[in-house]
Design a protein that fits this description.
86 residues
Length: 86
């Protein structure tokens, strides 16, 4: 099934959100007319979508790496920003 216009807009936004003035949450509300909570729910679903990976593979791979890093950090009991214990 193809991505909806909203899903494509979310991926386009995630590709370059830092170019928006102000906080990310504010840009989500203004540009996408979504609450930040709903935005992240949809984005999370998109990370596991083959259609999203085909639409923007670089963004999807970057976000999957971030998600995996956060999951490992939670499992290991440390902050995602801290280096792994060796």
């Amino acid at each position: 099934m193809a991505l909806s216009d909203r899903e494509q807009a979310i991926l386009d936004f995630e590709r370059a959100w830092w170019t928006e003035p102000g906080p990310k949450e504010q840009a989500i509300r203004e540009r996408l007319e979504l609450s930040p909570t709903r935005y992240y729910q949809v984005l999370s679903e998109l990370l596991d979508s083959a259609e999203a990976a085909a639409y923007d593979p670089l963004v999807i791979r970057r976000l999957r790496r971030q998600r995996d890093r956060r999951r490992r950090a939670r499992f290991e009991g440390r902050s995602a920003g801290q280096p792994p214990v060796r």
